[in-house]
Amino acid sequence: MFETAEIGHKLSKERYKREEPKLRQALLEAQYQLLEKGKFPVLLIVSGVEGAGKGETVNLFNEWMDPRHLRAFAFGKPGPADKGRPVMWRYWQALPPKGKIGIFFGSWYTDAIVDRTRGKTGKAAFGRELDRIRRLERMLSAEGVLVVKLWFHITKPQMKKRLKKLGSSKLTAWRATANEWKYYKDYDKFRDISEDAVRETSTGAAPWHVIEGYDPQYRSLTAGRILLSAMKHRLEGEMPTLPSPAPPATPPLDGHNILKSLDYAAKLTRPQYDKKLDALQAELAYAMRSKAMRDRGVCAVFEGMDAAGKGSTIRRITRALDARYYRVIPVAAPTEEERAQPYLWRFWRNVPQPGHTTIFDRSWYGRVLVERVEGFATQFAWMRAYQEINEFEAEMAESGILVVKFWMAVTPEEQLKRFKQRKEIAYKRYKITAEDWRNRKQWPKYEQAVCDMIERTSTDMAPWNLIAANDKLHARVEVLERLVQAIKRA
Amino acid sequence: MFETAEIGHKLSKERYKREEPKLRQALLEAQYQLLEKGKFPVLLIVSGVEGAGKGETVNLFNEWMDPRHLRAFAFGKPGPADKGRPVMWRYWQALPPKGKIGIFFGSWYTDAIVDRTRGKTGKAAFGRELDRIRRLERMLSAEGVLVVKLWFHITKPQMKKRLKKLGSSKLTAWRATANEWKYYKDYDKFRDISEDAVRETSTGAAPWHVIEGYDPQYRSLTAGRILLSAMKHRLEGEMPTLPSPAPPATPPLDGHNILKSLDYAAKLTRPQYDKKLDALQAELAYAMRSKAMRDRGVCAVFEGMDAAGKGSTIRRITRALDARYYRVIPVAAPTEEERAQPYLWRFWRNVPQPGHTTIFDRSWYGRVLVERVEGFATQFAWMRAYQEINEFEAEMAESGILVVKFWMAVTPEEQLKRFKQRKEIAYKRYKITAEDWRNRKQWPKYEQAVCDMIERTSTDMAPWNLIAANDKLHARVEVLERLVQAIKRA
Q1: Which residues are A70's β-sheet partners?
Q2: Which of B115, B212, B339, B370 has the largest count of CB atoms under 10 Å?
Q3: For the sheet containing B464-468, what is the strand order?
Q4: How many CB atoms lie within 10 A of CB B429?
Q5: Do A246 and B254 touch (CB under 8 A)?
Q6: Tens digits of per-residue pLDDT, A333-360?
Q7: Residue A445: in which H helix or E strand, if any?
Q8: In B, which residues are within 8 Å of A146 by CB distance?
Q9: What average pLDDT does range A99-110 have in this prediction?
Q10: Which residues form the Polyphosphate kinase-2-related domain (chains A, B) (predicted)?
Q11: Does residue B394 sit at the A interface (CB-CB below 8 Å)?
């Protein structure tokens, strides 16, 4: 794979001087066009052999383009803020929004390859890592991110020559560190493993470009031209069509479904409720403050039809929590900033840190519920979302976060009763809008979307808890019970 | 995941009698429309719990639709013909062509899940298996195959009830075998593992549909409706657009490339050649007949510009082989039968069996060479082909097949000389056509395509051997040398 970058490509300095200003101008123009159109972000991943000119190239890009609309991130080893967070969390925080260019210098590839080279991970774990990367990049591409990946390569003798040259002058000796020599020692292994990584992650949607890195003139102009051509190609807006996926499940023939199978008659009297609630809140408070939970985040998700009682149930939970360690995130239509990012981005931002709890009042499931039903997302987008969501939750679970999901289920009759009540009680009136009535008309479509969602996203590590919520008291107690159970199991 | 199929769906027999004829008619109509339009094949995968009605449903489909255009394959354990062949080989043989419906009863899922349930494979191997399946299905979908996956589910008590019922009558007791009871014993494990498999392979392009299988009326109509709606949806021809991938690499700035770096001056005199050829053919003959090669297939691929000497080199190889055990496959434009299948299908057909050699005179690389340059394949198609090809070759290598690839490189000047010679010598004239002259004009484009191909598909398990072929004698000897080396290493 790397043979084509070991043949001694080079360019004269004169040629570089002649071509560099033209390339620079073209890149700048493409950058402004990107900014004006604002249709997609560019993610440039810079990786490769130590000393093959990665850093120099990143610096050049910074110099060539308008730094206000370009941001380079140099990722090292995960820091304290990344502890207990999913592996991909810090990269999500750095994703460029539409119209902007983000450069990842060091990226999801670095850790995977270096850990494997140093024997910290086995072959199977490495394979899983590459699979995770492929899925993430596929999703980013499908969301419209232009992913451009540059791999800078030099040979082992070139690496040695460079280190010796650096070491021979006082001015540059600091750059030929013991660590750099360690990379030299590991060269062959690194080359093998990188070759696997580059091959396995060179997908049609996000291919690698391998650049011979020894000659600075050749390397710089080549890197610039690849970025330029990728941007121009996308700006010109060619969109391939895909064969359409099979459509979603049709509603079951007998009209029966899992929501209808719940026991909506379940009820609690006020005295029963008061007694149980007090006991459960105490239990929850103790469980959350236990030693086992100190280093773990909790991510609780509440979904349900309008007026199902999500808000009031959440309040019964938060009363048992320490205000310093929890946040409730009400999820409405995305903001402008959020719309400039892949749809999961706004949830990645709010992934709890260790020892903290995030409660989502509505969540990423909007993609397969309201966005599906209202047609805000294409079928292609919401069909692939089930798997993307499962992967997002798996990433959280892997990093030790407890994911607990509740569907608050009410019958259409009960919803109507509550809507009417809200209209009548002055201080509740703000809670009922024309939109609620519109949504209500779509009940069968929502119901189907909910059943599909439960079927496709109820997983071992994050199962759906279906709560019959026609009786609010019963529902609150059951949610608390399930939450306490989940924490105790974890 | 399976909770939604454990709620007791059922339909009355009256309703079934009323709806079955309508469904049947609609399915038949869709089948004929599929046949007439002939734009895509339908692959129906039927899997699930033992006794949940898989076989019955397959029989029904056979009854409902026109059996001339539908074919069901029941895959059991791999048989003798599958030995030493890649795992996916037998499935490729059974893929339906455009316009037809193929039903896989037992499929790539069965082995993966059963082996894992019985502890024959570990977690990591199972994960790799699912990844392989995902990639295959993604490729099939991208090639236009409509993949519909039905999972039939029953609960453990339902399974027991069924087995007891079967056992209680002499007429049906033969169906409640020890093997079936073994499935019952393994139910919980099977359910866990299946749930993982279904979740991880429920992609946007090829989602699973889970069907509650206990009630025959509900099960049959539901399965039929899912297939019908999938077919109608695709027949109506909705095609989602995808953000465009980054474009291919631009040719290197300094005009240098790996083809130009070969030593085209290498030459052999006739006496040198004769001596070496004899020795190498003998060596090859012995090596191919060695014990180590008895159970291994060899797949040799020859690619090169027109008139590079592929044919004459292949003849020097086949002279050393036993005619019973080798085949040369000349690859030209695909036949009608081949065009009705994914592009790799015609090569899967010719994967060598153990102890046999297949020599491809041109190959699957046409996708990223002529099809790319001439625009027969879209950019989306050839960009993803690199990875698909690497995976195809990896599948062969994994099953023990030795994959050896040669690029016969000539300079444009040498090609011109040979073209002119061919024109002049009567018995060679048939070898030179207007097309050859047309291709020659595209030399720079082909050269770029070849360099990209080498960069992206030269892998550890199947590296490209680049042969400077301006001197035919030198080229033949070098090919034989490399081939003998590759066999000796293997």
Answers
A1: A101
A2: B212
A3: B326-330, B357-361, B298-304, B402-409, B464-468
A4: 11
A5: no
A6: 888 888 889 999 999 989 998 889 999 9
A7: helix A443-457
A8: 243, 246
A9: 93
A10: 10-234, 269-489
A11: no
The alpha carbon torsion through B179, B184, B186, B190 (nearest 10 deg) reads 110
ipTM: 0.76
List the single residue in B11, B254, B387 with the smallest CB-CB distance to A253.
Answer: B11
Each residue's pLDDT tens digit, B153-188: 999 999 999 999 888 888 778 777 888 888 899 999
Q: Which residues of A touch B246 (CB under 8 A)?
A: 146-148, 206-207, 230, 233-234
Matching CATH number, B270-489, of 3.40.50.880, 3.40.190.10, 3.40.50.300, 1.20.1250.20? 3.40.50.300
* Residue range B391-430, pLDDT digits in tens: 999 999 999 999 999 999 999 999 999 999 888 887 777 7
Q: How confident is the model over A31-78, as pLDDT tens digits?
A: 999 999 888 999 999 999 988 999 999 999 999 999 889 999 988 888
Query: Partners of B329 in the beta sheet?
Result: B360
d(CA A50, CA A183): 7
**Cβ contact, residue pair A456, B5, below 8 Å:** no
Asked if pLDDT for residue B245 goes beyond 80, the answer is no
Name which of A40, A210, A256 is nearest B455 (Cβ-Cβ): A210
Residue B45, classed as helix, strand or coil, is strand
Contact residues on chain A for B454, CB-CB shorter than 8 A: 3-4
- The pLDDT score that the predictor gives to residue A245 is 59
pLDDT the model gives residue B345: 93
Contact list, A196 vs chain B (CB under 8 Å)? 460
d(CA A482, CA A115): 39
CA torsion through residues B436, B268, B405, B253, sign: negative
**Selection from A309, A359, A392 nearest residue A483 by Cα:** A359
pLDDT the model gives residue B424: 83
What is the rounded distance in angstroms from the CA atom of residue A229 to the CA atom of residue A45? 15
Who among B8, B40, B252 is closest to A243 (CB)?
B40
Instruction: Report the pLDDT value the prediction gives residue B246, as an integer from 0 to 100.
Output: 61
Does B273 have pLDDT greater than 70?
yes
Percentage of chain A lying above the pLDDT 90 cut: 61
- Would you list the domain boundaries of chain A? 3-235, 270-489
Report pLDDT for A242.
Answer: 63
* Structure confidence at residue B240 (pLDDT): 62
Q: What is the C-alpha to C-alpha distance for residues A211 and A229, in angstroms, rounded to an integer?
A: 15
CB neighbour list of residue A349: distance below 8 Å, 6 or more residues apart? A92, A93
Closest Cβ–Cβ partner in A7, A199, A456 for B258? A7
Residue A147 to residue B192, Cβ atoms within 8 A: no
- Residues of chain A positioned with their CB less than 8 A from the CB of B379: 238, 240
> Percentage of chain B surpassing pLDDT 70?
97
CA pair distance B143, A242, nearest whole angstrom: 9
**A175, pLDDT greater than 80:** no
Sheet holding A464-468, edge to edge: A326-330, A357-361, A298-304, A402-409, A464-468
| B286-289: Cβ within 8 A, 24+ apart | B287/B484, B287/B487, B287/B488, B288/B320, B288/B321, B288/B322, B288/B325, B288/B357, B288/B487, B289/B322
Q: How far is CA A295 from CA A332, A352, A353, A354, A480, in A?
A: 30, 11, 9, 5, 22
Among A252, A344, A358, CA closest to A296:
A358
Structure tokens at B216: 């025959």
Contacts of B144 in chain A (CB under 8 A): 243
Q: From the CA of A207, how many Å to the nearest CA of chain B? A: 7
Nearest CA in chain A to B132: A131
Q: How confident is the model at residue A479 (pLDDT cuts 50, 70, 90)?
A: very high
Same fold: A3-235 with A270-489: yes
Class of domain B3-235: alpha beta
